[in-house]
């Protein structure tokens, strides 16, 4: 995270306290991964333990012993009968989603990494959510962790909202629309804010106390109409 990003996020006193509590940002970007490979892995991991997902991907790769290690190319996966995908452990829904990703990759809807770098966040979300099994959250994770986009705030993510709840000592998580409005102040570095809020959610699970605990609430700024 750049000094500019750190300086900007620290303008929010609560986020500054969280940054001090957590320490250095450890957001890692998978720079050698293509959008195709990221989406295929995302489908495998949906609602599964990492070990189970990796086992399914390994069985898929075993169908192509002459192919380099990793996820096979789209045409190779499409050449497999559905029964073969099911035999790897993929459900019918996941098998259909994998095949749809492959078809869209061959059609160019799923861009190469180089092509993706020329597309805006909004354009990628619009293109990729047209694929079966790929929702907005999945694309947001791709934007943050595969493409390294700095200004993505996944407001539907449980951990992000839970981290905000813990940090501010709230009884419940903020609604996605509310958090989106709050997060406007963190732009253009919202991906880093999300990473710190995820760490806040981790701290909550460990039973740690928010760095804001015991501090008097800051007075709310009066709206112009009230001034």
Residues in helix, %: 55-70%
Order of helices and strands: HHHHHHHHHHHHH
CATH class of the largest domain: Mainly Alpha
How many helices? The count is: 13
Fold-level CATH name of the largest domain:
Endonuclease III, domain 1
| Shape by Cα distribution | elongated
Share of residues in strands: under 5%
Main sheet summary: none
Model regions low in confidence, pLDDT < 50 over at least 5 residues:
220-227
Structural overview:
This protein has 227 residues and is mainly α. The chain has two domains: 3-27 and 152-205, Endonuclease Iii, domain 2; 35-145, Endonuclease III, domain 1 (Orthogonal Bundle). It has 13 helices and no strands. The chain has helices at residues 3-9, 13-22, 35-45, 50-61, 74-79, 82-87, 92-107, 113-116, 121-128, 136-145, 158-168, 176-183, 190-205. It is elongated. The two termini are 38 Å apart.
Keywords:
55% helix; Endonuclease III, domain 1; 2 domains; 227 residues; disordered C terminus; 13 helices; Endonuclease Iii, domain 2; mainly alpha
Outline the fold blueprint.
Blueprint: H1 3-9, H2 13-22, H3 35-45, H4 50-61, H5 74-79, H6 82-87, H7 92-107, H8 113-116, H9 121-128, H10 136-145, H11 158-168, H12 176-183, H13 190-205
Brief characterization of the structure:
By secondary structure, this protein is mainly α. It contains 13 helices and no strands. Helix content is 55%, strand content 0%.
